[in-house]
Design goal:
The protein has helices spanning 3-11, 51-60, 92-104, 112-129, 135-138, 140-150, 189-192, 197-213, 230-237, 253-269, 278-299; strands at 16-20, 23-28, 31-34, 46-47, 63-68, 75-82, 106-108, 156-163, 166-176, 179-187, 216-224, 241-251, 305-309. The chain is of the alpha+beta class. A hairpin with a 2-residue loop joins strand 1 and strand 2.
């Protein structure tokens, strides 16, 4: 699937998508995200950040989060490239869990009715558990419009997990310019906890993709460097490898001036050497990220990069 087709599908969902130079950006109020959007769709649109694009970004958006090929890394993408995904490649415990999942559940493409009823309920449960707000997943009208637009689209693969005749989980993947991206991957924890339904679901999906395409490259989202979580451990156990990037920020000049004044006041006038307030740490990180981008541009280190624009409240 080409980026233009993917853009058209998402525009039909009401997203405000505009083209800037050679790239697409999804605008939300005073903020813009490169398209595909990181949080909803794993980002695989390589952006070559040069001075011209940097100038455009800093005047169009408040903050642009930019990923660079620099020595210091702080974010990574989970990727799997394979032409074989068999049980004998996993350790004994994981192999047993996958076998149990394959034995207890069945896996097939869900009907529209199952996605609109069970799928919506799973979305609402997941968003509530994660304290997450996403009306595209939890509002019936928006969810129905999205599912109807992709259910019969050959660029999308939807696989459901069934316990007898009830769907208790699903996963959506789409192919974009040669790479498979995994998006929503949710399960009903009230009905399927303790049996590892996601292991079986992922195992079946990747084997289906290998059978259809041969060698496949699959992206399973991005994570900031931090302590291992159950989700990151799960991805690594399922043979997804981490590919690291450095993170920097392109900041609007007016906001940048405010950051400089705030940081100068905290350090030089208030004489604070450490900051416990979340907003203070955020200001410092934004400014340091901005300096990293500027230094990379000055030194001529402008290899392949990935960029997304984020809200100030989400910068971390």
């Amino acid at each position: 699937m080409k980026i233009e087709e993917f853009e058209s599908i998402n525009r039909s969902q009401g997203q405000n998508i505009k083209r800037v130079g050679d790239y697409y950006f999804c605008g939300q109020r005073n903020t813009s995200f490169p398209f595909p959007v990181y949080t909803a769709f794993p980002m695989n649109r390589i952006v070559s950040v040069d001075r011209r694009l940097t100038r455009a970004l800093k005047w169009k958006f408040l903050i642009s989060n930019v990923y660079l090929e620099l020595p210091k890394k702080d974010i990574y993408e989970f990727m799997l490239t394979t032409d074989r995904y068999e049980l004998d490649q996993f350790n004994g415990k994981l192999r047993a869990n996958i076998r149990k999942s394959l034995r207890v559940f069945s896996f097939r493409k869900p009907s529209l009715e199952d996605l609109l009823s069970d799928g919506l309920a799973i979305n609402q449960q997941t968003c509530e558990r994660q304290s997450r707000t996403d009306e595209n997943l939890t509002d019936y009208q928006k969810w129905a419009k999205y599912i109807n637009s992709i259910h019969s689209n050959s660029g999308f693969t939807i696989l459901g997990t069934y316990l007898e005749d009830k769907m208790v989980g699903y996963l959506i993947a789409y192919e974009l310019e040669g790479k498979i991206n995994l998006t929503e991957a949710f399960i009903d924890r009230n009905m399927a906890s303790g049996i590892s339904p996601m292991k079986g679901l992922l195992y079946v999906l990747i084997n289906n993709l290998v059978k259809e395409h041969g060698t496949v490259t699959v992206s399973y989202g991005f994570h900031r460097f931090s302590r291992p979580t159950p989700l990151t451990s799960f991805k690594q156990n399922m043979h997804f490898q981490r590919f690291s990037f450095a993170k920097g920020f392109i900041v609007n000049p007016v906001l940048l001036l405010g950051l400089r004044i705030s940081i100068f006041t905290m350090i030089k006038i208030l004489k604070r050497k450490s900051f416990k307030q979340k907003w203070a740490k955020e200001f410092i990180r934004l400014y340091q990220g901005h300096r990293r981008v500027m230094e990379a541009l000055k030194s001529g280190k402008e290899p392949d990069r990935r960029a997304e624009t984020i809200q100030v409240s989400k910068a971390a």
